[in-house]
Request: fold
Amino acid sequence: MLSPQQKMNVPLLPHVWRGPTLRVDHDVGHPDYGTGPEAVRAEVTAYRTGFPDIHQEIHELRAEGNLLAHRWTTTGTHLGDFMKIPPTSKRLTTEGMTFSHFGPDGKIVETFNYYDRLSFMQQLGAKGLFWAVVKRAWK
Reply:
């Protein structure tokens, strides 16, 4: 069962990606963007810039204690710069799961996103770039 804090955040999940305004006041972060609300805004802005028609469909929601898990499919057309990759006009689809932990104030304090990054990069046509990065990381 969803707590009142989790219920407040469920409608925001797809809205973060597609809504008319970017309202982020949670404290989560990403290794490429840092932590805190500004880092979340930077990450979401990067996706919104690269994929202006981005859409996330939520298939399942599960809640237990302070954990909210959701399984999703995200689609979008690569029409802007993303990760220094110029627009390709390719339509991308990726599926994944997100696990979010809430603090006592109802804000998300930790998030784990799981999706097939290799497939995502291959759909962008960035296989060569991706493999160059992987090979360098393994040396």
